Amino acid sequence: MTSNVSETAHALEAGPEGGDTDAVRTLKGDAWRELRRRPLFWLSAVIIAVLVVMAVFPGLFTNTDPREAFLGRTRESPNSDAWFGRDVQGYDLYARVIYGARASILVGVLASVGTALVGSLLGLVAGYTGGWIDALLSRIAEVFFAIPLLLGAIIALTVMRERVSGYFMIVGMVVAILVVFGWPSIFRLMRASVLQVKPNDYVQAARALGASPLRITMNHILPNALGPVIVVSTINLGVFIAVEAALSFLGIGLQPPTVSWGVMISDARTAIRSSPHVLLFPAGMLSVAVLGFIMLGDSVRDAFDPKSR
Amino acid sequence: MTTEALGAQAGAVSGDARLLEVEDLHVEFHTHDGIAKAINGVDLHLDEGETLALLGESGSGKSVTAQAIMGILDMPPAKVPKGQIRYRGKDLLTMPVEQRRQVRGPEISIIFQDALSSLNPVFPVGWQIAEMFRVHRGMNRRDALDAAVGLMQRVQIPAARERVRAFPHQFSGGMRQRIMIAMAIALDPAVLIADEPTTALDVTVQAQIMSLLKELQEERGMGLLLITHDLGVVADVADRIAVMYAGQLVETADVHELYRAPAHPYTKGLIASIPRMDMKGKELYAIKGLPPSLLRLPHGCPFHPRCAWAQDVCRSDHPDLREIVPGRRSRCHFAEEVIDD
Predict the structure, then answer these.
(1) Which CATH number does the domain housing residue A157 bear?
(2) Are B158 and A14 inside 8 Å of each other by CB?
(3) pLDDT of B156-215, one tens digit each?
(4) A11 touches chain B (CB under 8 A)
(5) Which of A309, B90, B151, B314 has the fewest beta carbons under 10 Å from its own?
(6) How far is B213 from chain A (nearest CA, A)?
(7) Backbone φ/ψ region at B60: left (φ over 0), alpha (ψ -120 to 50), beta
(8) Do A210 and B172 touch (CB under 8 A)?
């Protein structure tokens, strides 16, 4: 009987598939295959790669000191010596654009990772436990959600601006404030996808086979609920970079002598009419960076979403 | 507490205690429309190596009984106001949560109906089977994976060693149910609950899965609680049958006795509605009406609105589950007449 059953099983079930084991398809594998075929993905990947190298090793791109001012050559147009020209203070714009990448990328990446961690963790807890914990966390999230990101950051930074100094402290504070006002969107997303994953039979099955709540959340719920969060965090990265620039422009984010695109745009205010290149280069870089990250987010979303194929 | 310690403890009190005993179990669901009484006093017992079939139509409380035994009912909305579920003499319902979790898997295990949705889509099947060994036995990854391959071979998955890294969606329905079975028996449980294990499968595969279950049960001496609505499946596999209707047992009997002469009008109706070869061309019998709403159970016997035997007494008095002949119980005022009919 045993051998009989096993043979029949072989013929009936394994037969059509021919026991193929080499072509194991996974969601991640499919998404990667899909991504590789998209020119938009490669374009954004190249932009981001260049920006990251720029942020880590600015010395590779320029030998000029971004803080070396030639007041006699103020507002010089682009030329062979200073490729992007010079600003009001006589700084080399090209060097400053290169060095400014670090602050923008740092703030963008840290704020995205921070909101993703805080939002996912709280969303996971709220979605999994439910009850009053869920109600409490959701109401808190709604309170923060009601405050516009930029407005909240302006208020918080104006109050706290005086208390910190030093490059990393200031960057850290800007990141912290973006995380405080930015986590609710990730929280809601995570909570919703946990609620969607939780009633699945495999979660029930894991429970029935004696898995602990921690194991159920980490092994069965989190991996199945993480997709949307990854996508939105990637898109958010561009948004955070833009917000950082806006804050610096308003004079409450990063400030001189820190070099950042937002600070440069702010410095350019007085010279826009007479020498627009002072504004165009940092603003252009900012646009390219934000575009790069948003394009990456879009491609990742499309690749993970089976409906868009 | 470790699994071993628990096992020893459970073993110590086993003495003459039954493997699994359900006594006067009540389960209700608190909904917006009121309280739905899903289970109203169920008594069951299961011995080692025995197969008890729990039979009934949708909504009769079969699956809720299984979930209550497993302790995976979502509470709220579910509530267990009354009853005991004893495993080797120990009441599972009053057991501390953590201790009860240790019972699930190594002592009592379950197979669900839909094997695709019961497997986590993002992990390879071998990983999921191996997880049982890593969590409960503390095995390292390699040993656990080897043990998983062994189990996959045991449940007759062809080319198990190659397929151990494949994902659930790469398997056919029958193969997925075999993987589910492998996970459920991984820790050698004493009780296996199979909640409609073959409903989602086609007929040829059904027979294979049932004979695999039967084989594993004999090999390991497990008590098997088979939940089903398919009388055909029951006849070959079960030792005893308990028929459920509206959250209560209406008849319990030895499987052959029950087929020979049902002692409850509902069971009689179920057996009459099995398609038969010698009835070709004739209209298939169906029990008329619908099962009652659990929110508003009728007065008296819950089956009376659909029953051909119904008298005034059925509309006013709720019948008890009484012993008709030794080993047979029926919840019907006219059980003797039904059995002789």
Answers:
(1) 1.10.3720.10
(2) yes
(3) 888 888 888 888 888 888 888 888 888 888 888 888 998 888 877 787 888 888 888 888
(4) no
(5) A309
(6) 12
(7) alpha
(8) no
